[in-house]
Amino acid sequence: MSRNNFAPKRRTLLTLVVTAAALLVAPVLPAVAAPQAVDWDKPGPHQVQVQAMTDHTLYFPAKMDRHPVIIWGNGSLARPAIYDGLLRHWASHGFIVAAANTVWATSGSEMLQGIDLLTRLNQQADSPFHQKVDLANIGASGHSRGGGGSLNAGADPRVDTTVPIEPGPRPSSAGLRGPTFLLAGENDTIVTPAGVKQYYESADHVVAIYGSLAGAGHFTPLNDGGGFRGPSTAWLAFQLKGDERARGEFFGANCGICTSKAWSEVQRNRLAQQVPGPNGA
Question: Which residues cross the membrane (predicted)?
Answer without folding.
Answer: none
